[in-house]
Design brief:
Blueprint: E1 2-4, E2 30-32, E3 41-42, H1 46-53, E4 61-63, E5 71-74, H2 80-93, E6 100-105, E7 108-113, E8 117-122, E9 127-129, E10 137-139, H3 148-151, H4 162-175, E11 181-187, E12 194-197, E13 210-216, E14 219-225, E15 243-247, E16 252-255, H5 259-262, E17 263-267, E18 281-287, H6 292-302, E19 308-312, E20 317-321
Antiparallel strand pairs: 1-2, 2-3, 4-5, 5-16, 6-7, 8-11, 9-10, 11-18, 12-17, 13-16, 13-18, 14-15, 14-17, 19-20
The chain binds 2-oxoglutaric acid and fe (ii) ion.
Keywords: Dioxygenase, Oxidoreductase
Pfam families: 2OG-FeII_Oxy_2
Organism: Triangularia verruculosa
Length: about 350
């Protein structure tokens, strides 16, 4: 999937740094490409890829001192010099979306604008991308070609690009579980947030494991138990304490076993003047969707049908990204704009 490109190396050397992730300036960057990507997505350099494979930086600590709570907290998983570079790399290189959707509340259709940028890559357990041509999708059991337009009529699945797949592999080894989806949130400031929810959709199967990374600005991660049914007469029910984990760049929380079924989590807004929470934050979650409905759900709520946004380093903010045109030729790298279904070679 990697392809040679023409722009310069992303990382520039900083002589003050003791440890640096800078690679040889002569190293030609490579790109992950796919019919569904709005633009090629740059790969991590071989040296950073190798560093990711050697993580976690510290062993995880269990947090399981409350009923049905099962967390492993890696503080950090990615050391800070590497987390800083990875944050800047992913913010620049990934396509993002600001998804809008409608929900029915008290019988009234309400328009929701997701209060953060999102993006997603992956494919559920029933299907696979063909190793030789990831634009082709195979049935996971029979390894035969499936018609993507029929199997996934609303959104064409996108393979996890190399820059996130390297972290997925390292996370799988540390967590001892498999992931087929990678969701990324970008919180542009303390005004972006995610409200209390649990990732307990049926398409994840029972007791799903979810690995959740923080890069960039610090934010509080709150957890509270779901409302418990009232205890039988005369008995006292368990008392649950709310948790507040001040997540720093490079930290990872693995949520597992009964956690999603019983606990809610959120990243509340931090819109005050405090500089503690200032600046952008990236969250990456790795998950495992078991059925096709999971693929459709993830693309619907994290990609949608709106415009693509890309980080603008001059403006220091996300800007709507437009495909290159005659008037605006765009970058020199080859873009792959039209999502189209390719039929495999019948003889092959
Ligand atoms: O940003 C975070 O740390 C949490 C994100 C999250 O809960 C989600 O995407 O489901
Ligand atoms: Fe979540």
């Amino acid at each position: 999937m990697a392809q040679k490109g023409t722009i310069h190396s992303f990382f520039t050397p900083d002589p003050k740094k003791q440890r640096t992730t800078t690679t040889n300036q002569d190293e030609t960057p490579t790109y992950s490409t796919h019919n569904t990507y709005p633009f090629p997505i740059r790969d991590l350099s071989p040296s950073i890829t190798k560093e990711l494979a050697s993580l976690p930086a510290r062993p995880g600590k269990p947090i399981n001192d409350q009923p049905e709570l099962d967390l492993v907290y890696f503080e950090p998983f990615i050391p800070s010099y590497l987390a800083k570079d990875l944050f800047r790399f992913l913010r620049s290189e990934l396509p993002f979306y600001r998804v809008e959707y409608t929900v029915k509340r008290f019988g009234v259709e309400t328009q929701i604008r997701t209060p953060r940028y999102t993006t997603v890559f992956g494919l559920d357990h029933t299907s696979l991308f063909d190793d030789d041509d990831p634009n082709i999708i195979l049935d996971a059991k029979t390894r035969t070609w499936i018609n993507t337009a029929e199997a996934y009529p609303r959104y064409s699945p996108r393979p996890i690009p190399q820059c996130l797949d390297a972290l997925r592999k390292s996370t799988e080894a540390a967590a001892g579980c498999r992931f087929n989806f990678c969701l990324v949130n970008y919180y542009a400031s303390g005004s972006d947030s995610i409200s209390f929810h649990s990732d307990d959709e049926r398409f994840l199967g029972p007791e799903p494991a979810i690995a959740s990374f923080s890069l960039g600005a610090a934010r509080d991660f709150l957890m509270k138990h779901k409302p418990a049914p009232p205890p039988p007469d005369g008995q006292t029910g368990p008392v649950f304490k709310q948790l507040k984990l001040p997540l720093a760049s490079g930290d990872m929380i693995l949520m597992k076993d009964k956690t999603q079924a019983n606990w809610l989590h959120s990243i509340p807004k931090r819109a005050g003047k405090s500089t503690r929470y200032a600046g952008g934050r990236i969250n990456i979650t790795f998950r495992r969707a078991m059925v096709k409905g999971g693929t459709d759900n993830y693309y619907n709520y994290n990609v949608g049908n709106g415009p693509v946004f890309r980080w603008d380093d001059t403006a220091q903010e996300m800007k709507e990204w437009k495909p290159p045109s005659k008037d605006n030729p765009g970058p020199t790298v080859n873009t792959n704009l039209k999502p189209e279904q390719k039929e495999p070679d019948k003889t092959g």
